[in-house]
Design a protein that fits this description.
alpha+beta, five-stranded antiparallel β-sheet, four-stranded antiparallel β-sheet, 9 strands, globular
Length: 129
């Protein structure tokens, strides 16, 4: 079976930003400028096999690198709306952050615990303010 992976980096138009959310914190940190990073590019990855149609993944890239954890961030769009991937578009930062926290709460309660990831923790400590 032949698999094809094609990745293209596309410059981002101005106005998109990634807003990180601490899913265990209250809303007092929402909008903290240290938690908002501009999107400088998009990584567009196409994956296909001989037996399936192509699947396209789009990952925002910020000055600190690509965003991989889809459960703790959302996008601020140029039109001022906030897009929580796979869950909806919200008119305010607070509503989007509340949705991210709700999804994180559901995952903590409904899914079994995942073993700790020390490498991930070291990366997060390196970029934390």
């Amino acid at each position: 079976m032949t698999r094809q992976y094609v990745e293209t980096i596309v410059p981002a138009v101005p106005g998109f930003a990634v807003v990180y959310v601490d899913p265990t914190a209250d809303a007092t940190h929402d909008g903290d400028p240290r938690m908002i990073q501009p999107v400088i590019a998009w990584a567009v990855t196409s994956k296909a096999t001989e037996t399936s149609t192509s699947v396209i993944y789009v990952t925002p890239i910020t000055p600190v690198g690509p965003v991989h954890d889809s459960s703790h961030w959302f996008l601020q769009r140029p039109d001022g709306m906030f897009d929580v991937p796979e869950f909806g578009v919200y008119p305010t930062l607070r509503e989007a952050a509340d949705e991210v926290r709700e999804v994180a709460r559901f995952c903590r309660e409904a899914l079994p615990p995942v073993p700790s990831a020390p490498a991930h923790n070291r990366v997060m400590e390196a970029v934390a303010p």
